[in-house]
Amino acid sequence: MLDAHGLTYGHKRTLSMLESDKTDSPIGVQILGCDPDRVLDAIHIILAHSKPKIIDLNCGCPALKVLKKKCGAYLLKEPEKAGKIIKKLSSSPSLAKIPITVKVRAGWGRDHQNEGLLLAKIAQDNGAKGVFFHGRSCSQGYSGKADYEPIRQAKKALEIPVIGSGDVLSPELAKDMLDKTGCDGILVARGAFGSPWIFEETEKYLKDPTTASSPASYEKVVGTAKKHLTIYKKYRKNTAEKYYVGHLRKIAIWYSKGLPYSKRAREAISYSKSFDEIIEVLDKLKSDYDIKWLKR
């Protein structure tokens, strides 16, 4: 997800976010913006650095700093503006072979009227090839539960594919959303935090629901956490560790949730000041678990 303003102003931090592994494909780009011309200019900058297979307009982010810029979910209040952006992108010759999609939330406030569907209809009329539909309102943020009904209504009303989003935290919940909304696909977001294997497990479960997914082994969780942290450190090799250690702590905490001694581990991770200290906590966590298992 990239900010059109940051890209067009040449902010180094935003430009650095365009980096990716050459073997990582397909790649999709999600853009934040409210001005059609600026968004298109930002997309051209992206195309100079990357080859995305899909370009998505974010009309769902509820973050206050995004709303203040009148971007993200704010566009639920100005759906016609979102339509103009979609039209600008979908009619651009340089983007002729790249599908333009839109990510929306069900509505703006708690008592919304499914403004997300109105925006999606306008986006469809202006050339959007699909919609990612989150079942919460902007005011909900990530609290409460995602509502399937707005997603079901969107699938019924739209001709373009509808991808359901919100609380897809397990293979079982993925199937539940598909069954109850009839949507064409599902979007996994927070469900992958600390459990990147959710995609493989979901694919297997959807093919054969009789095979219930089992919790990942302790070794797999801790081993993957360490691998994830190592990759992140390698990616930030040109940055002083003190500037990204907070991100390392966040990643480690994702994986620790639900594990034995996880509360103790999260406390220790939150006080860690370096990559090595975090790895030491994870190793200690596994050591404590192994000792407990051997005493059984």
Key features of this structure:
296 residues, alpha/beta, seven-stranded parallel sheet, TIM Barrel
What's the helix and strand layout?
Elements: E1 2-3, H1 4-8, H2 12-16, E2 28-32, H3 36-49, E3 54-59, H4 64-67, H5 79-90, E4 100-107, H6 115-125, E5 130-137, H7 148-157, E6 162-165, H8 171-181, E7 185-187, H9 198-207, H10 218-235, H11 245-256, H12 262-271, H13 275-294
Helix pairs in contact: 3-5, 5-6, 6-7, 8-9, 10-11, 10-13, 11-12, 12-13
Task: Say what the CATH topology of the largest domain is.
Answer: TIM Barrel
Class by helix and strand content? alpha/beta
Shape descriptor: globular
Largest sheet: 7 strands, parallel
C-alpha Rg (nearest Å): 21 Å
Amount of helix: 40-55%
Poorly predicted sequence stretches spanning 5 or more consecutive residues: none
Strand content: 5-15%
What is the count of distinct domains?
2
Supply the CATH architecture of the largest domain: Alpha-Beta Barrel
Terminal CA distance = 47 Å
Count of DSSP strands: 7
Average pLDDT score? 91
In the sheet with the most strands, the strands line up as 1-2-3-4-5-6-7
In DSSP terms (H or I, runs of 4 or more residues), the helix count works out at 13
Secondary-structure element order, N to C: EHHEHEHHEHEHEHEHHHHH
The CATH superfamily of the largest domain turns out to be Aldolase class I
CATH class of the largest domain: Alpha Beta
